[in-house]
Amino acid sequence: MSNSAQVADGVYDPATEAKGPRSCLGRTFGCIELWVVLSLAFVLLMRLTQPADGASWLWPIDPILSIVFLALLILGRRLKFKERLPLTPTSAAMIFCAVSWLNSMLYELTLSHAPGKYGGMHNVAQPTTIGSFIIAQGFYVPLTILGLILVHRYHITFRELFFVAGMTSIYEAVTVGVPAMVSPLFFLSPIVIAYYFVVYSRFLSMGLLVVDERLLWSTNGHLISFPRKLLLGSLLGVVCWICFVTWGELAIYLFNDFQGCP
Q1: pLDDT tens sequence across 51-89
Q2: Are 49 and 56 in contact (CB under 8 A)?
Q3: How far apart, in whole angstroms, are the C-alpha atoms of residue 240 and residue 227?
Q4: Among candidates 12, 7, 53, 253, which has minimal Cα distance to 138?
Q5: d(CA 67, CA 45)
Q6: Scanning 60, 126, 159, 256, which has the fewest C-beta atoms within 10 Å of its C-beta?
Q7: 170 within 8 A of 234, measured Cβ to Cβ
Q8: CA distances from 92 to 103, 165, 199, 206, 213 (A)
Q9: What pTM value is reported for the model?
Q10: Which of 152, 140, 244, 118 is nearest to 202 (CA)?
């Protein structure tokens, strides 16, 4: 069982949730604010050095989402507004899914493979905005639904979900994180890793900044350790990428590679 939000008898403890890990190293790596700030540093560095690299003119949406995330995190601790919202479990689940899906779609708007095109999921050589967003559903819809199921089944708290969701960035960890660590600019790898980790974390955990996670928990949840929850996050990333590749190939076949689409 995680020591971040649950006590020995499995009861949710908001005070413990806010404090996070107890050790110095744990507090450093467990500091969500630090992760977000490092990710913002990466965005700033990228836009200053490579202003057009894979980004659309709507790229400011990305750092704005991180700033909103940070603001909700800080204000939520002070004002406790999510605990005061009069929501039912059904409405809480709907809000969670809506925030997750909307967050991912806004992020896709910040990506571009060609001038006037949005999204990063379609053919790099001949990208289309509609094609990219249709294909993107193969990743983001399973991520949202399965993420909700994990929260429901395993009583995952906001702090835990931040790191569990970050673990779904398995593709970027292999294709971007590892090369960054062995490159001449390896000293920049922490902000590279932090950026992709935070982007994927936002997709799921932002919903729990406006919804009390206890409304999503099942009455007979299965409590497991935090390391096992992180493992589930990695497996979730693998499953979502399998769904994405499968749906992408099917969508390209069904829509004739979106030829003629904007």
Answers
A1: 666 788 899 999 999 999 999 999 999 999 898 899 999
A2: no
A3: 20
A4: 253
A5: 16
A6: 256
A7: yes
A8: 16, 19, 22, 13, 8
A9: 0.86
A10: 140
